[in-house]
Amino acid sequence: MAKAVFHRHQRVYVEPVGTWAVIDKVNPVWAKGFDEPVRVTYDCGLGRDFRADELVAEGEAETRRDGDVTHWRLMRAKNKWHAPDSSGHHPFPGTYPVVVTDQNDWGGWRVPAAEYDRDPALIEMQARLIAAAPRMLKLMKTLVELSSHDADDMPDGVIQIARRAEQLRRLIENDTVEAPKDARQAASL
Questions:
Q1: What value does the mean pLDDT take over residues 114-139?
Q2: Containing domain of residue 16, as a range?
Q3: How many domains does the chain have?
Q4: Rounded to two decimals, what is the model's pTM?
């Protein structure tokens, strides 16, 4: 028999997709002759229902998050539209970057071939930036922790940088800070 592990409107981390979502609907599957559901799935509005083992509650995810996303990595995929001979101006002819955010080499970030062909150097830099994002987030958290414990011994400039890092962390983790409304506000972060 299955019991619901999560409830409606609960914020969860959806591991197969690598994103946070809110449970829209709890879907128990009943079978004739049983007093309890035989299976429970959860609709998070991501195109399919997820099992409880594919979701992580917000509190549990906080404790696992630091080590859980460090497996993001940059891989190379074969470019089906350009042979290595015809893409000699690319940094890695015949391939394009893929940032994989799942331990099983799927899920993550990819770029359309036409966009990559337009500016390969920019796309390569974006891929490296995205792959390094979990490590940068961990670095930001460490900076904030250090500045909060030793605020009296830190220079004012470092304290200001730590405050900006905390604002960015909140923006990334979608805590209480709203997204910037214009380019000036985004640049100030």
A1: 86
A2: 11-66
A3: 2
A4: 0.51
